[in-house]
Structure formats: structure tokens, C-alpha cells
Design brief:
The structure is a single chain. With about 280 residues, this protein is α+β, with helices and mostly antiparallel strands. The protein folds into two domains: about 15-60 and about 70-175, 2-Layer Sandwich (Uridine Diphospho-n-acetylenolpyruvylglucosamine Reductase, domain 3); about 185-275, CO dehydrogenase flavoprotein, C-terminal domain (Enolase-like, domain 1). It has ten helices and twelve strands. The chain has helices at about 25-35, 45-50, 85-90, 95-100, 100-105, 115-120, 120-125, 135-140, 235-245, 255-275, and strands at about 15-20, 40, 60, 70-75, 80, 145-150, 155-160, 170-175, 180-185, 195-205, 205-215, 220-225. The protein has a five-stranded antiparallel sheet with strand order 4-5-8-6-7. A four-stranded antiparallel sheet has the order 9-10-11-12, sandwiched between helices. Strands 1-3-2 form a three-stranded parallel sheet, with helices on one face.
Amino acid sequence: MTPLAVHRSRKLIPEFALHRPRSAAEAVAMKAAAGPGGVFMAGGIDVVNRMKFGAPVTDLIHLAGVNGLYDIEEAAGGLRLGALVTHDRLATSPLVRSRLPDLVQCWPEVANIRIRCKGTIGGNIMARDPGYDFALASMAADARLHFLTADGGMRVIAVSEPDAVTEDGLLTAITMPSGAALRLIFDRSLRPIVSLAVGLDVADGHITGGRVAIGCAYHTPAVARLPPIGPVRQSGEVAGMVATGLPEPVADHHASPGYRRRMIEVLLRRILEGLT
């Protein structure tokens, strides 16, 4: 008989081999040798939780000792954030504060202190959880993910690409655009019904386009493109176009699909009207 529910328990964690690589190349080689049961672990928030639900992990590749994954540095047109940067370090970094002030402003409100100090931005993206915030921020900003592949090459892919988190390599860094040409706005007021991260491309004081990343409304984070806003298309029209063009949101005990779609439109319109 199929069980009605699967409850989280430490008893469901399978036996596994623990690996501690000292370099990114060594980590990638370990995962390739482990096969489908090999997983990378950074802060462990998501991985350990999945293991408590019985995820078939045979080899745990712990990345804490890998140099180069904790760096925050200037990059062409933005910032390069190491995959193991924690949420707390992101919020307290002077460089991030100066280059991505919109991001830093809301980050102290994300999660609780344990997750902020242990959870990593790379793990947040790779988990593909619809309620995770940095995944939304990176999608709204049109960030790029840097993967070290098994053959030693580096693959760079947009975070919004459908296969971005199925890459077999190791996520080493995230490049986030920054500066006056990008505005990031968050609205988490209706979580867990819906949350929004909006990235606006700005030129000469005008909104030339952008992206809205949507959390909590789908099984994985979703992103939609925003057209230019101005004399041709006003904020309300753009919000309505985006909401209408979205796939059907999920239905659960928090909200119906119709209510979620309506709230996406309402929150996006409020954000855009506050800027135009």
C-alpha cells in the first residue's frame, strides 16, 4: 500500500560516503566518479533536508574546503559572487552594499539567522525551490552562472535558462549585473502565496525593459520579460500583460491559481507605478 505521506526523519538518511575535496577540479572529479548518487553540499540546509525525506544520496561531496568559492569581487559590468557566499556575507559585504544596494536593503529580512549564516547563494539557486529568494534575485537581475565541467572547461549560462540547474558541473560563481542601469525591487509581502523580484533595465531615466521573477506560485521559480514602460505602455497595462501571459499557477491550501495570478498583477503594478 502506498503511504499517504512521507514524513521527514533522520532515520531516512541513507548511508553515504563523505568526501572533502580541496579544489573545484577535485570536487567535479569526485562527483563524476560517484555517479547519480553523488551530490555537492555547501551549507547543507537543502541537501540535508532532502536526505531526511529519503533522497538516494550515496556520496556527499562537501565543498567547505574548496578555495575560491567564497570570493566577492568586481567583474565586467557587475559583481562576481562565489557560490559559497552566505546570505549574511552578501548582506554585510561593503562591496555588495556599494554596487547592489537594492539587494542589500532587503536581505536582512530573508529567512532566519541560522539559514542566513549557513545557507549559500549557490545552494539557493541550485535547489530550485520556489520559495527561495536569491534564485529570484538572480533571475530578475539576469545573472550568469559559472560551472566548472568534468572536462575542465568553464560553462557560463543564464540563470533563467531551463537547464541552468541540471548542469553536471560545479557551480563556482554567479555574475550579477550592477550599477545605475539596473534596479532591483522585491515584494515578499504575500509569501507564501506569491513573491516577486523585479529587475528593471534603466537608460537615461527610462525603463527600457526588464524581468519579473515569481516565487511561491509555481513548482519552480518562474521568470517573465518586461517590455519598455512609458508613453506606449503604461504600468497597469504591462502588469496585466505579464500576468495574462503566465502559465497557470499552482493550487494549494494557501491560494487558488486565479488568486495567485491576480496578486502577481497587483504587486507588479504597484511596483511599476511607484517608479514611473
